[in-house]
Specification:
about 140 residues; mainly alpha; 8 helices
């Protein structure tokens, strides 16, 4: 259980940094999307998420802690974290320069190939479309 809580803390820290990069931490859908992603994609329990994003855990960590943490994750989990961070950035249907930089820093820390980053971008677009479908008119 403690390992899941630590992974949840790292995920919510990663998501928080992406939300901060957007300049709009108060976007209503960001916390909800981060929680849904943690449970549905990362397979974390609701209890692990609640404890993992607690102020007592998350506020003691820094950007360096986040980057060293994601660097130590297994490759499959790294890709899920990057996909989730990109999804957080794309909730408003665009990425600002700071969001692109944070995604790039994450990918570099994870040592992901360009192909893997592109696959994560595609997956993030798909997830974002599922959360916020765009109505297309002809």
């Amino acid at each position: 259980m403690e390992q899941d809580i630590e992974r949840a803390t790292l995920w919510f820290l990663t998501a928080r940094f992406m939300a901060a990069a957007s300049g709009d931490i108060a976007v209503d859908s960001q916390p909800s999307a981060a929680g849904l992603f943690a449970q549905a994609v990362l397979g974390l329990s609701e209890d692990a998420c609640i404890e993992g994003k607690s102020a007592a855990r998350i506020n003691r960590l820094s950007l360096i802690d986040c980057l060293s943490g994601v660097a130590a994750l297994p490759p499959e989990t790294q890709e899920k974290f990057l996909t989730g961070a990109l999804m957080i950035a794309l909730l408003d249907r665009r990425m600002d320069a700071a969001e692109v930089r944070w995604a790039s820093v994450l990918a570099s820390a994870m040592r992901l190939s360009t192909q893997r980053v592109e696959e994560c971008c595609l997956a993030a677009h798909i997830l974002t479309d599922m959360l916020h479908p765009v109505t297309r008119t002809s």
